[in-house]
Design goal:
α1 packs across α2, α2 packs across α3 (about 200-215) and α4 (about 245-265) packs across α7. By secondary structure, this protein is α+β, with helices and mostly antiparallel strands. Helices cover about 25% and strands about 15% of the residues.
Length: about 450
């Protein structure tokens, strides 16, 4: 792939809160980008407050498909770096590229750079796990002032449950590598670097969640399903397509695309070859008389019934069980759903799809076990719904399919350890929020 002169971001976080800079600084620090320091070369690094720092990175291991770098504050040793390179070469690179696409080579060295940095350690209950920043694919200029001009993945090695080379670290690496490959093909190759063609976030995140599972087996990602088993999830009161960067969003897109992968193991590469890279494009990819609406209805029932044959091997944990008695007064939004025990729905609303235990549409509330509102009108980047129901279905959410800064919510996990979250932004959403750290 050739290097292009245009650009855009995407970030992987574990967090309980976000703070954003105001882009107003009295003085800019000296820009040493690309120069040699006492430890290594100065590169841009984004911290959890979306402040850009210049940090020295040194290359300490080289693999077949990657290079591994350590920052000036890290104690990463050469042996661990070599094992990271070996793991990427043996278990991540081929699994991701064979199911998705090849990476873009921004710096023409034939290898993906893995920057291991010493970030938040999680002592406050939250931390940045890592990120992919697609500005790095473009030449540094006034529009993209913090490009490192490298095909690079940033992984935090500081937290005790995310140390370099451990299982969580490797899962993050696989997740971020899919994001890199997705932008590589769908923007850089397919659309000559026009970042208006970025894959919709809900699709991209579903692909990355499954990329980790394809590298390490679906049993490795079973903790995602825990969000379906307690009533605070609302049994689906989170949309598949309206991305709000909640852990439940990740659980939902992971499960949905796992089922699609089981039905067709070429689903990811087929979508890559569909040029629009959005919800309409996915509907086209499904084809064969099976629309997104059909697939979502089928997914709801297969998940509720724990139909193991409809999902990849070892997808379900041994103790998995849907709590079908969620909120009686939920928020129903496009491509969200609600499970109730059969016979417990109190009304039928003609604007909503009610499903029986076999997945068939029903107008008999006593036969219904699930309800969902599907968006049958438009799948645009700036979707807005305006519908309100009664009883179980109280209101729809007016929102955008793609996230904006104002839509980000604080994230907290029900477990004692925070889980990886990937915040994926378009270029237009982050350009005015990044600031240089003084």
């Amino acid at each position: 792939m050739k290097k292009l002169f245009s650009g855009s971001l995407m970030i992987l976080l574990i967090l309980t809160a976000c703070t954003f800079g105001n882009n107003e600084e009295e003085s800019e620090p000296k820009d040493l980008h690309g120069t040699e320091g006492s430890y290594g070369i100065y590169y841009y690094l984004i911290n959890s407050d979306y402040q850009v720092e210049l940090v020295q990175f040194k290359k300490i291991s080289t693999g077949t498909y990657c290079t591994v770098w350590s920052d000036q504050n890290s104690d990463l040793d050469s042996g661990t770096a070599a094992s990271i390179a070996s793991e990427f070469d043996a278990n991540i690179y081929n699994a991701v590229t064979s199911n998705f696409a090849d990476p873009y080579d921004a710096d023409s060295d034939g290898k993906v750079a893995i920057f291991v940095y010493q970030g938040d350690d999680g002592s406050s209950g939250s931390y940045v796990a890592g990120y992919f920043f697609n500005w790095d694919f473009y030449v540094k200029n006034s529009s993209r002032p913090y490009s490192n001009e490298k095909d690079v993945i940033y992984i935090n090695g500081a937290p005790s449950n995310h140390e370099p080379g451990d299982a969580a670290f490797n899962m993050t690496l696989a997740h971020e590598f899919q994001h890199l490959c997705n932008f590589s093909y769908n923007v850089m190759d397919e659309h000559s670097g026009d970042d208006n063609y970025q894959t919709f976030t809900w699709i991209d995140e579903g692909f990355s969640e499954n990329a980790s599972a394809l590298c390490y087996g679906y049993s490795s990602n079973q903790d995602r399903l825990s969000y379906f088993t307690y009533s605070s999830f609302g049994n689906g009161e989170v949309s598949l397509t309206l991305w709000e960067s909640q852990l439940e969003n990740y659980a939902l897109v992971y499960a949905f695309f796992a089922r699609l992968y089981k039905s067709s193991n070429s689903i990811f590469s087929t979508f890559y070859n569909e040029s629009t890279n959005n919800t309409t494009g996915l509907n086209t990819t499904l084809g064969g008389g099976s629309s997104l609406n059909d697939q979502f209805r089928g997914f709801l029932i297969d998940l509720k019934n724990e139909t193991s044959s409809a999902f990849p091997t070892n997808f379900f944990p041994g103790t998995f069980s849907i709590d079908a008695n969620g909120s009686s007064n939920p928020e129903i939004i496009p491509y969200a759903f609600l499970y109730r025990t059969q016979g417990n729905f109190t009304s039928i609303n003609s604007n909503i799809d009610y499903l029986d235990s076999s997945g068939n549409l029903t107008t008999n509330k006593d036969n219904a076990v699930a309800v969902t509102w599907l968006d049958n009108s438009s799948w645009s980047d700036d979707y807005a719904g305006d519908w309100s129901g009664t009883a179980e279905e109280t209101k729809a959410l007016t929102s955008s399919i793609q996230p904006t800064m104002s839509q980000l919510r604080s994230i907290s996990s029900s477990s004692s350890e925070p889980k990886p979250i990937d915040l994926h932004f378009r270029n237009k959403d982050i350009s005015s929020n990044l600031t240089r750290k003084k």
